[in-house]
Design a protein that fits this description.
potassium, Nucleotidyltransferase, domain 5, 7 helices, globular, binds the ligand CC(C)(COP(=O)(O)O)[C@@H](O)C(=O)NCCC(=O)O, alpha/beta, binds adenosine-5'-diphosphate, six-stranded mixed β-sheet, ATP-binding, 273 residues
């Protein structure tokens, strides 16, 4: 049995998981992420945090047979991460990039080297999960929405500010708007400044998803599955489910999925061992 260590370095969080060769990137059981975790990507700049993480990983993880990663948070972060494992210097770190090849998939992005590695990994992860027309939502620092057709073509996508960025930019660039806080009444047309911001930003994101579904239909790739991952996945999925009456998609076809980017890195790594 082999062990693979996977890292997804996002602009806010660094996620990792150790998976075994007896498991598959398409597995859905919770046990899949038995050896996983996340930390703030920025905390890697601190020598104390690096030492803590190195110590934790060295104590909890056996030496992996291969390491795969994506990084959209800048070169410095990945150098800091690699510096944590001097004892594994003989293992090559395989970096999945926006223009990395994956059998059965291709992107129409004009310059694939500019496509976010995490977006491409999520597309690969989605392909590992199903062969249907799929909308891939990564609701993280930014919210990305990508269309993958059953024919294996990535038709591109959209980049929106993530929910937190939307809230912060309203607070930071206006005189009267606070940093809004979500509560159970934050739905529908806002009847307070707070709820007007929360519901307005949710509407922008859900509206974009609904529009993407409509556009995909017009392009003759009607969406059969929507995967939502990222730190704000549960929020978006919950808000989307309230719109179910108006959507051509059933609730079952919209699902949150854990570790879609990690699954994609893993599937790609398996093709490149
Ligand atoms: N514990 C948390 N730490 C940081 N961000 C969180 C947390 N829980 C939810 N979030 C939200 O998730 C976003 C980060 O999601 P994530 O998928 O990790 O992003 P990225 O891949 O860009 O690092 C933040 O912008 C924030 O809105
Ligand atoms: C769009 C992103 C900032 C999303 O990053 P994240 O929110 O996952 O940290 C990242 O995928 C990126 O830097 N993309 C490069 C530009 C592109 O995809 O066209």
């Amino acid at each position: 049995m082999s062990l693979y260590l996977l890292f997804d370095v996002g602009n806010t969080r660094l996620k990792w998981a150790a998976v075994e060769s007896t498991q598959q990137p398409s597995d859905r059981q919770k046990k899949l992420w038995a050896y996983s975790g996340s930390i703030s990507s920025k905390s890697l700049a601190s020598p104390e945090h690096r030492a803590e993480l190195a110590d934790y990983i060295a104590k909890t993880l056996p030496k992996p047979d291969a390491i795969g990663f994506t990084c959209v948070a800048g070169k410095g972060v990945i150098e800091n991460l690699q510096s944590l494992f001097p004892q594994w210097s003989d293992i090559s770190w395989k970096q999945l990039k926006g223009d990395s090849q994956y059998n059965s998939l291709r992107t129409l992005y004009q310059d694939p080297s500019k496509l976010g590695a995490d977006r491409w990994a999520a597309v690969i992860g989605a392909r590992a999960l199903s062969n249907t027309n799929t909308l891939i939502i990564n609701a993280g620092t930014a919210t990305t929405i990508d269309l993958l057709s059953s024919n294996g073509v990535h038709y591109g996508g959209w980049i929106l500010p993530g929910l937190e960025l939307m809230h912060k930019s309203l607070e930071g660039n206006t005189a009267q708007l606070p940093l809004a806080v979500r509560d159970e009444t934050s739905y529908g047309f806002g009847l307070s400044t707070n709820n007007a911001i929360i519901s307005g930003c949710d509407a922008a994101q859900i509206g974009a998803i609904q529009y993407a579904i409509q556009l995909a239909k017009e392009m003759n790739h009607p969406v059969e599955k929507v995967w939502i991952d990222g730190g704000n996945a549960k929020i978006l999925a919950a808000q989307m489910s309230k719109f179910k009456g108006q959507s051509s998609l059933t609730v079952e076809s919209t699902e949150t999925i854990e570790g879609l980017v990690l699954r994609g890195i893993w599937a790609w790594l398996l093709q490149n061992l």
